[in-house]
Amino acid sequence: MHFKITDKMADIISESPSLLQIMSRFGMKLGFGDSTVEQVCGAQGVDGPTFISVVNFVSEGGSAPISDEECGSLSVPTLLFFLKQAHIYFLDFSLPNIRQKLSEAIGCYDHDISRLIMKFFEDYTRHVEQHMMYEEREVFPFVEALIAGNGEQQFRIASFSKKHSQVSDTLHELKDLIIKYFPAQESSNLINSALYDIMQCESELESHCKIEDNLFVPAVMKLENPDCKIPPVLEKDGRAGRHDDEREDEDEDRALSIREKDILAEVARGYTNKEIADRLYISIHTVITHRRNIARKLKIHSVAGLTIYAVANNLITIKEIGEFI
Predict the structure, then answer these.
(1) pLDDT in tens, 246-305
(2) Phi/psi of residue 145, nearest 5 degrees
(3) End-to-end CA distance of the chain, in Å?
(4) Contact 312, 303 (CB under 8 A)
(5) Is residue 151 a contact partner of residue 224, using CB atoms and an 8 Å limit?
(6) CA separation (Å) from 311 to 118, 177, 272, 293?
(7) d(Cα 199, Cα 139) in Å, to the nearest integer?
(8) How far apart are CA 175 and CA 267, in angstroms?
(9) pLDDT tens digits, one per residue of 128-141
(10) Under DSSP, is residue 304 helix (H, G, I), strand (E, B) or coil?
């Protein structure tokens, strides 16, 4: 539902409990009684139009287009504060909490797959940290300079937008791999709890990236050039924005061919496309084509995910993996 700034804050939170995280990233506290959104924002020093725009964008799934007028009403300093607080939440709370739960669950199951899953998550956490540190180091200082009135800079927000990746996709892979291949025995409370948190984190990261792409970037573009027209809502979610050939494949046999299994095993062993081509006496183009088909059939795009699949399905043994912790 579409919320208004005149709605009571307590009613909004009761209707959509997930918005508690949104509220906390604006630095807002509970205990607001029957006050409206406008009254709570005013009392706690938060820009009301920006808060309600983010709330509606998230509650509507991050797909509702933002108008040029609404974009112009967004407070860039408020959005910047919101994104910085989100980074703190993911890096200092959410991901470490998942790691602790995974570690406890894996401690109960001394198994190759469980250890590979742990390594997958640790590598993923480093990737997210690098992604967010780039924003902290390059993007946010640029925006702060714009806010201060310094527009004479080489960096432009459009360049960030083009390179901005959806960091939740890899977490989606990990979730599916745990569901399919984690060797749980007896009680699975620990791994199920970790899995639930992974699903929640995936959803929150996806929403976070959409806010950056579709609210923050257009608002900064307006700050760079008030006369610019904002771009349409961006769709960077690989699962929702799949190509037609991937949709068609849903109705096709997803079983891997013998050659695809051979190539998958080589990928899991750590060989490059060139090395695989030389080892199997085929062209690099053929290797790339097979890898694309493997990723489409299995819906696994990362090497770490493909490695887990290969070990779980006895295409290779754990001893064949060059680098394993």
Answers:
(1) 444 444 457 899 999 999 999 999 999 999 999 999 999 999 999 999 999 999 999 999
(2) -65, -40
(3) 47
(4) no
(5) yes
(6) 14, 12, 18, 19
(7) 28
(8) 21
(9) 999 999 999 999 99
(10) helix
